[in-house]
TrEMBL record:
Family membership: Belongs to the sirtuin family. Class I subfamily.
GO MF, one example: metal ion binding
Deacetylase sirtuin-type domain location: 1-283
Protein name, per record: Silent information regulator protein Sir2p
Pfam family of the protein (one): SIR2
Key words of the record: Metal-binding, NAD, Transferase, Zinc
UniProt-annotated catalytic positions: H121 (proton acceptor)
Gene3D superfamilies per UniProt: SIR2/SIRT2 'Small Domain (3.30.1600.10), TPP-binding domain (3.40.50.1220)
SUPFAM superfamilies per UniProt: DHS-like NAD/FAD-binding domain
UniProt KW Transferase keyword: yes
Listed GO CC annotations: nucleus
Residues binding Zn(2+): C129, C134, C175, C178
Keyword Transmembrane helix: no
Length: 283
C-alpha cells in the first residue's frame, strides 16, 4: 500500500528519537535460519540442551559444537540490504538506537555504529570463563581453540548425518587465566539475564523520554526483556512499525493501535524501501 509507505516516510523524516528491536528475521535473507521458523532447529536436540546453562553443564561438548556450527554459519554469511539500510539510518539519525537479539554480528559487519547498537543476547564472537569470579573474556573469538572442535572442511556440521563427537572435557576450550575452568559462549542463554551494562545503556537512552518511532523487525518479540521495549516505546508515545514475514493473530506486538504500521514481507526488501527517503537507495 503506497499510502502507508508515504505516511511512514513522512513520519520517519520528522523523527529524531527512533528505537528498533531486531530479531532473527532480519538475518534470514542472509541465510541464517530463524529459531522458530521452518528448519530453524538444530538436528533433534531440545533447545534446553543446546542453549541453557543446565544444558551446558550437562553436556558442554554438545553446546560447544552447536555454537561452533552457528559461528561458522555467521562467519560465512553477508549482511543483507536491511542490515545496511539500518546502519545508514544510524548515520543519518544520531538519536536512533537499535536493540538486537541477534548474535550473528551481521549488523556490525554492515558498519552499524557500535554506540547505536545494543546486543541484548551477546555474540557468537564472544567467549568467557565459566568461573563467575574470573573476569576473563575474549571479544573477537573466531576459531575453536582446540582442534577437536574444528569443523571438518568437507562436511556440513548442520547436516543431520554428520556424527557429533564426544569431545572430552580436557579438550574443550579452557580459560587461559584460571586453567581449570571451561570457557563458555558469550551468549545470553535461556533463563539468564541480559548483562547489566547493556540494560543500563538502554535504560539511559529510554530515560531521555519521548520516542517518535519504534521499528520492530523480524522478531516474534515474545521473549522478555525484548517484548517490554515495545511497551515502553508505546508509553513514550512512539508510533510502532512492524516488519515481518508473517502475520500473527493475537500477538501483542502486531495488535495494531491507531497510528501503527504493519509491513508484511522479507525484511531485506521492505526495510530499504521504508528508509530510502532518508538514507537514499541501498544497492
Ligand atoms: P524468531 O525466530 O522467534 O522469530 C523470527 C521472526 O522473523 C518471525 O516472526 C518470522 O515470521 C520473522 N521472519 C522470518 N523470516 C523473515 C524475513 N525474511 N523477513 C522478515 N521477517 C522474517 O526470532 P527472535 O524473535 O529473534 O527470537 C529468537 C531468539 O533466537 C533470539 O533470542 C535470538 O538471539 C536467537 N537467534 C538469533 C539468530 C541470529 O543471530 N541471526 C538466529 C536464530 C535465533
Amino acid at each position: 500500500n503506497i499510502d502507508e509507505y508515504t505516511a511512514f516516510a513522512e513520519h520517519l523524516k520528522s523523527s529524531t528519537r527512533i528505537l528498533a528491536l531486531l530479531g532473527a528475521g532480519l538475518s534470514a535473507a542472509s541465510g541464517i535460519p530463524t529459531f522458530r521458523g521452518a528448519g530453524g532447529f538444530w538436528r533433534e536436540h531440545d533447545v534446553t540442551d543446546l542453549a541453557s546453562p543446565e544444558g551446558f553443564f550437562k553436556n558442554p561438548s554438545l553446546v560447544w559444537q552447536f555454537y561452533n556450527y552457528r559461528r561458522h554459519q555467521a562467519l560465512t554469511a553477508m549482511p543483507n540490504r536491511a542490515h545496511i539500510a539500518l546502519a545508514k539510518l544510524a548515520k543519518q539519525k544520531p538519536g536512533f538506537l537499535a536493540i538486537t537479539q541477534n548474535i550473528d554480528g551481521l549488523s556490525e559487519q554492515a558498519n552499524h555504529s557500535p554506540s547505536q547498537l545494543e546486543r541484548i543476547h551477546g555474540s557468537l564472537f564472544e567467549v568467557r570463563c565459566t568461573n563467575k569470579a574470573c573476569e576473563f573474556q575474549e571479544t573477537n573469538y573466531t576459531d575453536p581453540i582446540v582442534p577437536a572442535l574444528q569443523l571438518p572442511e568437507d562436511q556440513d556440521i548442520g547436516d543431520a548425518n554428520f556424527p557429533l563427537r564426544e569431545v572430552p572435557r580436557a579438550d574443550l576450550p579452557h580459560c587461559p587465566k584460571c586453567v581449570d575452568s571451561l570457557l563458555r559462549p558469550g551468549i545470553v542463554l535461556f533463563g539468564e539475564a541480559v548483562p547489566q551494562p547493556v540494560t543500563e545503556r538502554i535504560g539511559e537512552w529510554l530515560d531521555k523520554g519521548q520516542i517518535d518511532l519504534m521499528l520492530v523487525i523480524g522478531t516474534t518479540a515474545i521473549v522478555y526483556p525484548a517484548a517490554g521495549y515495545i511497551h515502553i516505546a508505546r508509553v513514550n508515545h512512539a508510533r510502532v512499525a512492524v516488519v515481518d514475514m508473517e502475520v500473527k493473530d493475537g500477538d501483542d506486538v502486531q495488535r495494531e493501535q491507531d497510528g501503527d504500521w504493519f509491513f508484511q514481507g522479507d525484511a531485506s526488501v521492505i526495510v530499504p524501501e521504508l528508509l530510502k527517503e532518508v538514507i537514499g537507495r541501498v544497492p
